[in-house]
Recover the amino acids of this structure.
């Protein structure tokens, strides 16, 4: 369904709810199933030489972060039904840096209610996988991006491929989920590949294991969890990349606030900068993405 591409990746993130249960189960197995190889690369979008001013927000009665429970491993309910995830831990770390732990709250709402809740003053910030796109930036003021979600190729371990993805997969069948930004990206960036659209990930996974296609192209988060889960049966691995594109995938994840709350954004930017410099962001990233996304 290439005619209707979801260029706004905030829409794409809502699809994670369909695989939430699978990802939560897979996460429990990640630590014992890490693929051998180089240490994961920790992303850093802050210039360590830059110093960002820290506005005083101590007079605020509260700082409530709004999120959802259907975007694992970023925000979800754990086995004890407590809110958990990378975004949740990041919000708490930001509050510690800003010295406002006693005023910080994190509340989960359905995705469809986040926008009205923020704009009506029921919360001060969204940390729920809202991507920075032209559409979303017209509605919110964003912090600096703290994580970009790359697109990745996955191939069979038996393929014995080198490092030239464009040459090695030319004229080869590559699976992709139809109607997504990843399909549009694949067709635009790699027109020599034979794109094979699927409506469900498990069908694409099975086709790759059975040798009916030579590769898969899609979201690095979903693919990394599948690779490290029993469902993959150790068949496959990342190949090439990572691939980042503001046009197709947005400018990454960021914290959204009301358009007039520039002070809070400056405070978040300051905290993100400090978390990157003191190593806390790397700690959180490796805790939730021990296999890496890059």
């Amino acid at each position: 369904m290439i005619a209707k591409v979801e260029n706004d990746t905030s829409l794409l993130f809502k699809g994670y709810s369909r695989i939430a249960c699978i990802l939560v189960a897979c996460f429990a197995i990640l630590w014992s199933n890490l693929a051998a190889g180089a240490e994961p690369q920790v992303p850093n979008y802050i210039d360590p030489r830059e110093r960002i001013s820290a506005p005083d927000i101590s007079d605020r009665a509260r700082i409530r972060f709004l999120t959802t429970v259907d975007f694992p491993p970023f925000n979800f309910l754990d086995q004890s039904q407590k809110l958990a995830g990378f975004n949740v831990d990041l919000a708490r770390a930001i509050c510690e840096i800003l010295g406002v732990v006693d005023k910080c709250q994190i509340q989960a709402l359905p995705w469809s209610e986040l926008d009205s809740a923020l704009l009506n003053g029921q919360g001060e910030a969204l940390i729920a996988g809202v991507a920075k796109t032209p559409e979303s930036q017209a509605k919110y003021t964003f912090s600096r991006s703290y994580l970009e979600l790359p697109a990745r190729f996955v191939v069979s371990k038996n393929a014995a491929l080198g490092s030239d993805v464009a040459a090695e997969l030319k004229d080869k069948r590559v699976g992709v989920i139809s109607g997504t930004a990843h399909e549009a990206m694949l067709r635009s960036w790699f027109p020599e590949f034979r794109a094979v659209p699927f409506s469900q990930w498990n069908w694409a996974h099975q086709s790759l294991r059975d040798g009916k296609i030579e590769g898969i192209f899609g979201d690095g988060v979903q693919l990394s969890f599948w690779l490290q889960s029993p469902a993959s049966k150790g068949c496959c691995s990342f190949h090439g990349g990572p691939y980042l594109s503001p046009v197709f995938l947005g400018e990454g994840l960021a914290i959204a606030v009301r358009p007039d709350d520039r002070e809070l954004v400056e405070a978040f930017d300051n905290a993100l900068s400090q978390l990157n410099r003191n190593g806390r962001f790397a700690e959180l990233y490796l805790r939730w993405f021990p296999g890496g996304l890059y």
DSSP finds twelve helices and 13 strands in the chain. Residues 76 and 84 are 6 Å apart (CA to CA). The longest strand covers residues 236-243.
